[in-house]
Recover the amino acids of this structure.
């Protein structure tokens, strides 16, 4: 029992001595840490505003602001540790040793960070662009070091690890997405009238303000003249506007008296030889 009391007294004396010796240093380190956190937030916002003022894209602005904040916090932490008499040299050596093992264990994660850094520097796309990669299409909402966040018209959030983006074929249509449709009309239709009707519908719906649509005869089918129509819609309302265009095209062609034929087949019965019976 006496031995336990002696051990407790030694620990108590050590704690009391530490707080008596380093009480002011602890208070000073805490104040420095709070000031450092406040300054890091303000400097990060200042960097972000400066980047926006000079026309840098959102992705690069956020990356520079985050790096600035992290650097300030690390510098303040080193100062605080030195303030209370803790040397950072052993920590640096330990971090170096742990980094080697962690690097081998987290190769996939590190490759994502490397790919994210590559995306931020080369900027093959920016926030607000519509990209298609790995069979996935969506609007870029945010580019992080580890992953890129997309969103589609259904408000579905799509997370793509950056290592699956770098080195792949990327389709970037900016904020628009192309619609490629086919419209068949009867062979007796006035071609110029059909073209004018289609252009009128696209103009009335404001589709031609995004980019001039492309309209022309795509092929001469068995039962109809097939017009190819290519126009661009905002990705965020792609399906909604596409359905509206189809509805208005059908109504406009009906009012203009332009027939949309259904598939037809002409069957001819050849007269058989008189010597052959009907049953044969």
């Amino acid at each position: 029992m006496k031995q336990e009391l002696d051990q407790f007294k030694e620990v108590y004396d050590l704690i009391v001595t530490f707080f008596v010796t380093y009480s002011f240093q602890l208070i000073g380190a805490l104040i420095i840490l709070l000031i450092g956190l406040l300054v890091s937030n303000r400097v990060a916002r200042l960097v972000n505003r400066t980047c926006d003022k000079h026309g840098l894209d959102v992705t690069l602005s956020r990356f520079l602001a985050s790096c600035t904040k992290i650097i300030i916090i690390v510098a303040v932490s080193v100062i605080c540790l030195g303030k209370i008499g803790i040397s950072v040299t052993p920590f640096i050596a330990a971090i170096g040793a742990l980094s080697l093992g962690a690097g081998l264990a987290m190769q996939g994660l590190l490759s994502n960070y490397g790919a994210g850094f590559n995306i931020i520097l080369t900027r093959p796309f920016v926030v607000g662009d519509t990209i298609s990669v790995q069979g996935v299409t969506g609007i870029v909402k945010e580019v992080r070091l580890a992953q890129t966040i997309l969103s589609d018209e259904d408000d579905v959030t799509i997370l793509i690890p950056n290592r699956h983006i770098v080195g792949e074929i990327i389709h970037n249509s900016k904020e628009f997405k192309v619609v490629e449709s086919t419209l068949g009309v009867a062979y007796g239709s006035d071609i110029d009238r059909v073209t004018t009707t289609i252009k009128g519908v696209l103009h009335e719906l404001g589709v031609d303000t995004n980019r001039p649509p492309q309209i022309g005869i795509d092929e001469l089918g068995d039962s109809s003249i097939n017009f190819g129509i290519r126009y661009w819609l905002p990705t965020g309302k792609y399906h909604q506007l596409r359905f509206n265009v189809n509805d208005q095209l059908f109504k406009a062609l009906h009012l203009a008296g332009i027939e949309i034929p259904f598939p037809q087949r002409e069957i001819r019965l050849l007269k058989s030889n008189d010597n052959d019976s009907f049953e044969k």
Remarks:
- The two ends are 119 Å apart (CA to CA).
- The CA atoms of residues 15 and 36 lie 27 Å apart.
- The mean pLDDT is 80.
- The first strand starts at residue 130 and ends at 133.
